[in-house]
Amino acid sequence: MEEKRVDSQGRVSLPVDWRKQHLGAEGAVIIIHRGDELIIKARGDRKPSEFFDKLKAEVRSDLSDWRLVRRELLNLEGAV
Where do runs of H (alpha helix) occur along the chain? Predict the structure, then answer.
């Protein structure tokens, strides 16, 4: 564990040994905001979508009209 300060431009410096061990040459990370936490994960070969929650739902609305889809999904939430 390390305590670091965020600079005026929002940057955080990671220790060099952590970068070498976890980030490799690409150096890409994914930052996840959950409640009062910020989680930094090495991206590696993973797609960012792997870090998002997934939900399966049957929708009858035409997917070209996202307002209708959203309304339908919000109504499904109350029916559960």
Answer: 16-18, 66-79
DSSP code of residue 56: -
Q: Confirm whether pTM is higher than 0.70.
A: no
**Per 3-state DSSP, what percentage of the chain is helix, strand, and coil (rounded to 5)?**
30, 15, 50
Task: End-to-end CA distance of the chain: give it in Å, rounded.
Answer: 41
Tens-digit pLDDT profile for residues 3-38: 999 999 999 999 999 988 888 777 888 888 888 999
Number of Cβ atoms within 10 Å of the Cβ of 12 = 12
